[in-house]
Amino acid sequence: MLKITKRVLQYFGLFTLFISSALAVSSEFNFSVTPIADNVYSIISPSYGRPSAENKGWNSNSHFVVTKSGVLVFDTGSSEIIGKGIIKAIKSVTEQPIRWVVNSHSHADHWLGNAAFSNIGAKILATASSTSAMKEDGQGVVDAFERMTEGATGNSSIAYPTTLLTKREKRMFGEVEVEFIFANDGHSPGDVLMWLPKQKIILGGDVVNSDWIPIMTPRGNVPHLIDTLNAIIKLDPAIVLTGHGKGTTVQSVIRDVNLLSSVWKLVENGNKEGKSVDNILSQVTAELAGKYSPLYKDFDSSSSYLVQMMYKKQQ
Predict the structure, then answer these.
(1) If DSSP codes are grouped into helix, strand and coil, which group holds residue 260?
(2) What share of the chain is helix, strand, coil (3-state, %, to 5)?
(3) pLDDT of residue 5
(4) pTM beyond 0.85
(5) Is the pLDDT assigned to residue 24 strictly greater than 60?
(6) Which of 42, 102, 259, 269 is deepest in the core (most CB within 10 A)?
(7) Distances in Å between the alpha carbon of 280 and those of 34, 82, 199, 233, 275?
(8) Count of CB atoms situated within 10 Å of the CB of 153
(9) C-beta of residue 241 within 8 angstroms of C-beta of residue 217
């Protein structure tokens, strides 16, 4: 249990480092639904940061697609309580049954709401790697979130994915075609994205970002993340739906590729030249701050985190 909790807290501790400020959440949840396209909707969390007593654990987005055969949900939030709130919000816009859930990855703020959906008969899909990581964390993440939120997330029941995605593939959900795209562990082991080709919408979880620098984690693979973002750019999505923060466009994906590629190269060259991480950070700031500070809310506060993470990955 200690090992699991330490890893969970390590991730969310690092997550906090690159957040310039968290947006406050009102005393009551407001799971309002934002229409994105004719049959695509988002439930956007107003909080960007780790689960806390202030945000009651609601710090990640959920999205859903309404089909003639039922509703497909992408991510379920960080507690069973939040999952129930998301279900209520979905039912406010459609009478279709919620039949399918996709977990974008194994970080608990995106899947601990699964039990609420499992209890109403929804089938839960995720990659094998994500599911394995979820089972490794198990009750540890429930306990960790309850502590971090001072009890707000409660003792969520655990519902693991029951249908495993093993490769890039296309599936029909009702009349809607969905392509599952693997990020090859770019953000975390087992990341999966959903591409809606007709609507030209990508649902990217934490692989994609809007106002903040890309979310780096100890178990992520930066070159694979860059490759995945380049693959998204080739799709030329009209809309990019993120795991945290507002929806955005392909221009944000291009921006992230350019930033990650530039910093990765500077760190790589600095390592070859025997530079310290502080010297590399100074170079990154000198060469990139002018361009990227206006593009990210947290570039100035988080560039150190970005460089340190990449430096460790290249050792």
Answers:
(1) helix
(2) 40, 15, 45
(3) 45
(4) yes
(5) no
(6) 102
(7) 42, 41, 42, 29, 6
(8) 29
(9) no
Nearest to 119 by CA among 90, 92, 157, 146: 157
Token pair for residue 166?
């093993």
Q: What is the topology classification, in CATH, of domain 2-313?
A: Metallo-beta-lactamase; Chain A (3.60.15)
Q: How confident is the model at residue 49 (pLDDT cuts 50, 70, 90)?
A: confident
* 178 membership: H or E segment, kind and range: strand 176-182
- Other CB atoms within 10 A of residue 259 CB: 23
* Distance of alpha carbon 191 from alpha carbon 184, whole angstroms: 7
Six token digits for residue 141:
């993440």
The predicted structure's pLDDT at residue 26: 34
| pLDDT above 80 (res 21) | no
Residue 197 C-beta-side C-alpha neighbours within 13 Å: 11
Q: Enter the tokens of residue 10.
A: 């390590």
Over the stretch 227-282, which tens digit does the pLDDT of each residue have? Answer: 999 999 999 999 999 999 999 999 999 999 999 999 999 999 999 999 999 999 99
Look at the alpha carbons of 59, 60, 66, 72 in this order and tell me if their dihedral is positive or negative.
Answer: negative
Q: Tally Cβ neighbours within 10 Å of residue 254.
A: 14
* Short-list 154, 236, 160, 167, CA closest to 202: 236
- Closest residue by Cα to residue 184 from 143, 159, 219, 141: 219
CA distances from 174 to 71, 94, 171, 178, 202 (A): 9, 15, 9, 10, 18
Domain boundaries, the chain: 2-313
Is a pLDDT exceeding 90 seen at residue 16? no
